[in-house]
Write a structure and sequence with these properties.
Strand content: 5-15%
Distance between the termini: 71 Å
Number of strands: 17
Radius of gyration: 33 Å
Strand order of the largest sheet: 1-2-13-4-6-3-5
Low-confidence stretches: 602-612
Length: 612
Amino acid sequence: MLWFKVGKDRVALDSPKLRDVLADVASGTLQLPDFQREWKWDDDRIRAIIATVTLDYPLGVVMTLETGGASPFRARTLTGAGSEQDRPPQLLLLDGQQRLTSLFQALYLDAPVKTVDTRGKSIDRWYYVSIAKAVGASADRDEAIVSVPENKLLRAEFARGASLDLTTVEGECAAGLFPLHFVFDIQRVNAWKRTFVKADERNWDLWSEFEERVLEKIRSFQVPMIRLSASTSMDAVCAVFERVNTGGVPLNVFELLTATYAGDRSFTAESGDYYQLPVVWQKIKQELAARFPVFGRLDQGVEDGLSSSDFLQAVALVRTWERKLARPGAAVSCKRRDLLDLPLADFDRLAPKLAEAFAWVGDFLQQQCIVRAADLPYRTQLVPLAAVRAILGEETDGLTAEEMITQWYWCGVLGEMYGGSTETRFTKDVEQLVGWIRRTGDVPDTVNDAYFFPDRLDTLTTRHSAAYKGIYALLIKQGAVDWHYTGAPISPALMDEHWVGVRQIFPKAWTEKEFGQKFPAGSIVNKTPLSYRASRNMSGPPATYLPSLVTASDMRPEWFDDVIATHLIDPDALHANDYERFYLDRSKQLVELVQGAMGKRTALRGAADGGE
């Protein structure tokens, strides 16, 4: 075994034999940390990896973590190895579960493998190798590996000839199919060989060649293995995993903490059970989502909106804030290492506080007329906002504090400040926003550095942009009235009921035909929040569809013009089908709307007005 260092951590390169690795799986010496997903390879992939082993082709690197006799995670055995093991694991399998579980079940267990076919249907299979085909060209080895039903009766369409009965050794030998599930049991192999050779003396030479070209390669097959020492930090585990596991799913911090917290002996000793982080998070998420749909949903493992990582980052920000107060000079941070170093006791203490803080954030977003997950400009911006609420508590409820937070929020959205790397901005915003509200610090960089250039309106064409979603919400917030339900301004409570969405004002095809590309028809300038019922009556240019909308509203035309104006639209330009006039006037009004939300003049407009 060769040891080397990665930073402060010791890493070993090893090449144990496959039979020894599978024996460790069977005994429980090698187990899985509980953050690993379930084994799920299908029949085709299992046959392919068996063929790889029989040819002594590279298997790919497996990564393990030594436990030193005390696993840092809650551990479980690999599928098929049994659920109860008396001995604690000596090694944890971090990468290679699908490969080793497949080989363990197919080559080591005396039981059919429970897998699925190409359609995802559950099947039980034994694996055999055709002796005649296996001693042929290496290119034919995939065809030599045969998948057999649990009853060991192979129908004609599978055997390409007469149906085969493999329920006895004699039947297997007659078919020339060697059962792979006891390939490492020399006594059973020799007994099978005697029956095979006894059936036909010519099988001596065939068996000798098969043993040399196939069986010996399986028995001597080595598994390239990276072994991380027990002292390896969790941050280093993630880093090494990401370099090795280029084709798989990266380690998730939430899953790592799930296994870490489940293995926390102090909690287990006190409560008699292990800490179930997914259950705690699911309860928090469901309660938040029930009150505020903007946080998304958590359904059968599918998570949208507010994520578990967002919540952990907010907890880490508050914890490191507390640490900085206790130890001046310490940093406020929520990097991966801060999450991985988050003690269970601190998470358990702070989680309820952050759940309340995110509920406050949900209420804040409703006040900004952002009520649906699809309309949220930046999910990440909620992380420092929740942390600030958790730190300040009711200090955020004062009128001045609310104005500061609202300005900071819209500067982040409309200045598109959360579009890149966010961890550094999280830290700055927490420290600077708290200082600003408490009058102990200056205006946050997110407010100072945010600009909205007027020509940005021309390029805001899809929901992929935070500023696009922001302007849509601001139009509702400033009092836009629907063109069908004209009784009152659009309210957050009725947005889903009335199917309010972003609707085109001038039709794109007509606009491009009449005015070309000078004023982009797909821009947010040419869109506004309206109900589905209103949009159904908007066929053709405005001068064509406005009369029907007026009639349906049962309002006087001049009153309906006032409704149109609540969308920051010049009604006369619509009646005249004057798209250029409409576009220039609305652009000016939208820029003023943005300026008001950000609490500052845009750079270009300020320059045009003499740099005021």
